[in-house]
Amino acid sequence: MRAILKFTKEENIRYISHLDILRMFQRAVKRAELPVSYSCGFNPHMLIGFACALPTGALSMAEYAEIRLDRELDCGMIKERLNAVMPKGCRILGVKVIFEGYPSLMAVVSRAKYSIEITDRSADGLIAELVAAAAAASEITVNKKTKKGVKPTDIRGMIHNLDYSEGAIHCVLDAGNSVNLRPDTLMEYFSRGLECFPEYRIIRTAMYIAQGGEIIDAFSAGGDSFD
């Protein structure tokens, strides 16, 4: 059985790393006594994967894990068992069966939506101007880390929605294996426009996948679900 789990990364665990998230799930799966499948080979490991790494320190209401089990279980039961053992700050929001022939989430996730909340509203006007200017720009160049090192990169084509309202920058950015733009990279660009940029926190609110030529919510893939 293949299933995807939609979960949160809230304040209590915002500073744990991607590797720590994996370890957290491994411990939770054991404590929940789920019949998780293991890889073959000299060092077998649980077949658990994640859609797209979140920057350390960021929050999320839409993280996704993929898990393979040795036998069929009710999706509601999986959710209930995991929520009973998960640490504070991580909640399983939904569980969905994924067909065997469906690609891995890591392969199909293409975009992510973020709300970047500004804690100090005193610079609202200037931030709104910076965001509006970026949304209207044909090119946005930043020093971006690539496989060949850090180099100037035009990221405008990686930004699909961008606006500022109610004290938050809202954006949809490319995310995935082929093209990926971290929200903190975008915020480094905006930080250039103010001598002292206010503190902010990044919240991922959705992930999207490419399916049938369309961009849809990651939890809308085919299969049975429980949420």
Keywords:
5 helices; 227 residues; two-stranded antiparallel sheet; elongated; 12 strands; alpha+beta; 36% strand; ten-stranded mixed sheet
Report the sheet with the most strands, covering strand number, pairing sense and barrel closure: 10 strands, mixed
The helix content is 10-25%
Strand fraction: 35-45%
Element-by-element helix/strand order = EHEEHEHEHEEEEHEEE
The radius of gyration over CA amounts to 19 Å
Describe the structure.
The chain is of the alpha+beta class. It is built from 5 helices and 12 strands. The chain has helices at 18-31, 75-85, 105-108, 124-136, 183-191; strands at 2-9, 48-50, 59-68, 92-97, 109-118, 141-146, 149-154, 159-165, 168-174, 200-211, 214-217, 225-226. The strands form 2 sheets. Strands 1, 2, 3, 4, 5, 8, 9, 10, 11 and 12 form a 10-stranded mixed sheet that branches. A two-stranded antiparallel ribbon has the order 6-7. It is elongated.
